[in-house]
Target: FAD-dependent oxidoreductase
Amino acid sequence: MTTASTRHAVVVGGSPAGLLAAHVLSAHADKVTLVERDRFPAGPEHRRGVPQDRHTHVLLDSGQRALEELLPGILDELAAQGSPRVGMPEDIVQWQNGRWIRRTPSTGYILTGSRPLTDWAVRERVLKNPRIETVENTEATGLAGDARRVRGVRLRERGTHPVGQGEYVLDAGLVVDATGRGSRAPAWLAAIGAEPPHEEYLETGLAYASRFYHARPADAALGFRGVYIVSNARQQSGAVLMPLEGDRWSLILSGLRGSEPPTDEAGFRDFAATLPHPLVHDWLREAEPAGPIHGFRKTANTRRRYDRPGRRPAGFLATGEALCAFNPVYGQGLAVSALSALALRDALADPRRVPTTRRVQRALSEAARPAWDISAGADKNVPGALGNVMRPRTLDKPVDWYMERLQRRACGNPEIGRVFRSVLHLNTPASALFAPAVARAVLFGPEPAAPTEPPMEPESRAG
Ligand SMILES: Cc1cc2nc3c(=O)[nH]c(=O)nc-3n(C[C@H](O)[C@H](O)[C@H](O)COP(=O)(O)OP(=O)(O)OC[C@H]3O[C@@H](n4cnc5c(N)ncnc54)[C@H](O)[C@@H]3O)c2cc1C
Model:
């Protein structure tokens, strides 16, 4: 792939990863066509092609910064639309690794507006670009070309022809797969004689059940703006309660394999009673639902190794969850979509290197790697986890031992907490966890006291 010959690029998938890739490519191609199987709604509405949009989608601060760099002003637009900005750790009651976390002054912020709102804001900005054309209600069914070069994408308008008929080819010098975790691109590549990527997966069986609620006047007196209860080996159920735009809340109940949260009214409420503290169950008693309960079970970490050598064609790239999908409990996917778009921009603009398909794909894979290391790295230790990347490495045992000590200190030591959060939020490389000051506190420092009960007020207010 050279940018000079890539006069027409096609991006398949109109979610954040695809939209942001199209935005970046529009600076290099004469025309970018964005193909989406859904019809885009006019406003911030749920979409059939994105079933996960019924569940809380936090945007980490690394993702906010990347998004702002790509689309200046977007954070102000999200704020104007009411997307709440929640401080960590001050604003939320958090239970992680079996401990409550001190609510000291915030060192990071997450945006907790609904996924439809975030998608709509990004879509509105990106699709204003006259170089980007959308083809909606149309799905990609394969690639055109051969194992050496992709020459376009096979498309079919939805609902107009019986399956297998009505296909046509849209010619392109570059095809980007942004169709999400269910991507069929490995089969598309095989069909043109190319080599599909090796697929790594690791899943804990985590299941979500989520519901939106109207805020009540009494909620204004709550001493928190969110609750985050992370399951562990001894505690199979978790919860995420976060504010949404439009004076609403979103509540996720989650459970590992064998402890999946029910999606019926009574089961949902009873499940909340299995959390390590009754605070969410008590909140639910008075809560006013704003819609039905939705379940979700496809939460495996999946990485397609397009970065590894193989007989794959020039002119084909994968990004977003089509490349690397994460256990959603870490809240990384949107941030990685934005960071990947920055990596694409930088790889295409690098004056020192010809942006071959392989180089650009490596840059995209590298952008997803820190999040993969966190998500798959932590999930390996979840009892009952299954996958083909479970093989222990020599370094795993001492690193796990160190991480266990670090997390015990992160709850009560604000500085360790800050560094730990910064790594989890993809602001800082994981090497920061082993910096001398942190290592000293982890290896030789005493274990600081963590709250014994959920801290219902920030420390600044509790006095
Ligand atoms: C339950 C759940 C909760 C999550 N919570 C968070 C969170 O808190 N924070 C966070 O950052 N991330 C979260 N994620 C991850 C986040 O949803 C993804 O990272 C995000 O959607 C970006 O993915 P994407 O753009 O690659 O793909 P998707 O959003 O899955 O979009 C793929 C798009 O491709 C289209 N498409 C698919 N196939 C075709 C085809 N053949 N032809 C044309 N179009 C096609 C689809 O209609 C869709 O529009 C969560 C995920 C899940 C499952």
